Amino acid sequence: MIVVSDKNCKQGKKPLELLAKKVSDLLNIEEEISVVLVDGKYMKKINGQYRDKNIATDVLAFEDLDEIFICPQVVEKNAKENSITFNEELTRVFIHGIFHLKGYDHELVDKEAEEMKRVENNLLKNL
């Protein structure tokens, strides 16, 4: 089960709740995963605290907590840069976060990055 909440975030969580249900069903997710929508200021803070990066990012996943943080402000910016809709980009980063929780890590091994991208793209096609 995937639970969506928002913390200091102006965007609504409804689109993500619908997406969470679909992804949960497709991947047979039984454990509880928390998805928290945060504003840019909060995302920058936790990105700095846990990754030593002083910028807001679109998604952070904490495998040991089964928790994903998403910043809709950054998602919106990335969607515009990539000429796609907000919901398409939100779907992509949400799935990316889920795969991080499942143990995929694209930053350490190139081969794993390729596999992660392939699996993400397959899931995106099924949504």
From TrEMBL:
InterPro entries: MetalPrtase_cat_dom_sf_prd, YbeY. This is Endoribonuclease YbeY. The keyword rRNA processing applies. Keywords: Cytoplasm, Endonuclease, Hydrolase, Metal-binding, Nuclease, Ribosome biogenesis, rRNA processing, Zinc. One of its GO terms (biological process) is rRNA processing. Single strand-specific metallo-endoribonuclease involved in late-stage 70S ribosome quality control and in maturation of the 3' terminus of the 16S rRNA. The keyword rRNA-binding does not apply. GO terms for cellular component: cytoplasm. Zn(2+) binds at residues 96, 100, 106. NCBIfam families: rRNA maturation RNase YbeY (TIGR00043). Pfam families: YbeY.
